[in-house]
Fold this protein.
Amino acid sequence: MKKKISKPKLTERKRRSMLKPKLYLRRILGFFSKIFSPGYSSCMRCGITWKFTKEHSTSYNEHSGCFPLCEHCWQELGTPENRLIYYQQLWAEWSLYAPMPEEKWDAIEKAVYEGR
Ligand SMILES: [Zn+2]
């Protein structure tokens, strides 16, 4: 029996190629948003500042949350595996300023994998 050509892969490839131009446009918006809102933090993927886009807040314990991604990018990335790198990037930035407790990272990672 002949193996079926993996159709989902083609769909996935098509989906990705359709996303890229959109992300490119959002990065241009991100560039300009920084000019018009200096001092604001921004999404680590598209670069749009929190003045112009809504952050996706990931609460990792009762009192704390973090938001490396905007709601749009968070949705678009689709899976915890795709999102995790941005949380790692944020964690690396935090770690530049102060030593961070490992339990905190564990809590963040857990929250990301739970889709929060
Ligand atoms: Zn974004």
Observations:
- The first helix runs from residue 7 to 36.
- Residues 58 and 66 are 5 Å apart (CA to CA).
- The radius of gyration is 17 Å.
- The beta strands are 58-59, 65-66.
